[in-house]
Fold this sequence. Notes:
The chain has helices spanning 2-23, 28-40, 51-68, 78-104, 122-138, 154-164, 167-182, 190-214, 216-219, 237-258, 261-281, 288-308, 313-335, 338-344, 349-352, 354-377, 384-406, 409-432, 441-458. By secondary structure, the chain is mainly alpha-helical.
Amino acid sequence: MVSIQGSSRGLSSYRHVVLSMFGRLQSHQQMSCGRRIALCIPVVSSHSSASPNADQKLTWLQERSSLLCTRENGSPISRCHQINTLLTSAATSNAALRSTADKQGIVGAAAQPVESDDRTNPLVQHNKSEKMEATSDLIDSSVMSWKEQPPLSLFQIAKHSTELMKLRLSGLVVLTTMLGYGMTPGPFSFFDFGMVTAGTALCVASANIWNQWLEVPYDAQMKRTSARALVRGALRPHHAFAAATITGITGPALLLATSNALTAGLGLGNILLYSGVYTAMKRTSIWNTWVGSLVGALPPVMGWTYVTGSIDPEALVLGGVLFAWQFPHFNALSWNLRQDYSRAGYRMMSVVDPALCRRVALRYSLALVPVTLAAPVLGMCSPWLALDGTALNLLLTFRAWQFFENGDSQSARKLFFLTLWHLPVLLLLFLVHKTGTPKCPKYSEWISEYTQTLRSADA
């Protein structure tokens, strides 16, 4: 039993050494890597009979640290290389302890429970003292040496901050805001169009940066996100914090200055909902997908309220299209990333309840049909949208049905790639079939008042 406890305390002491070494580092490039590796070092239970498993875990840690501690250009980070050296020393010391225990003939007692306190067991204290001496001998003084990292230039900070904004995803979100503005009644203004686009883009950028700033330890455990700027140490955390704060303030402020408080409040609420609620729920409940879908449904509503100043049924139709589309899109995406999400501890439908994941994707694909038909009913679009919009949604439903029936990687991949072009095409159909004058008399009165205001201003 002593060999097991000695090995356990050996690993624990190395954990303490690694945490102490990285506790003094001020560079996130070094700090994040040190914390990830140190926090993963297992402390073997005193009741465990798997001393050889400690060697296996240390070997896994060495491989994992090599994976996490590599830059984009393939060169290892010097401090992370020192962690690998430290883990190698831990593995060697652990093997030496087991060899000593084998010679003393006490390994067979590993399956027995602990009957005495370690503090009163002289044999345990003796092995603990030997272990600590071996630790100090095995750690080279160069491992503990300090290496200052060069400061980032403004160009590098701007480049990596832009990377945190997820430009491709943000572009799709901003496109839905453009749809919301374009579907509103009244004359088109390039200034208003540019302001609502810029304000929404800043809000989306802030939400994405906050999300990645909060999820660095978990992103490091996923292959899909392990190369992000904060994870690989390309950007300091205080730089990301500053970028998220600046964009989070300027976005709603721009919307408030050029439009109304409702649109600015929706932008600020979207930032808080995504970074504060959705990010936290990802590790606690599968309802995070519904919250994330609500986040995606707000941008087109913001485009509508920028002009009208109110949330009308037409705005809810636009938001409903985005809300329903999120489920087949994300559920298909997460299906082939189940191992990654499980490794990071995210409670996604594809991990917790795969059958529900497939049902929900099919359910909301079908829901897109009546939501789209509501646009011609409200006078937003001509009846032609009921024809080509329904055909497009039925194609999505067919792919969702295949995913529901088969539940394999191929059907999930086909559904995901269909959603990538399904949404832009559907939004384009909304704009193509937009009617000149809506049926609602309130909008006709609003257009008349707006036109008279313009004429009086010209006069």
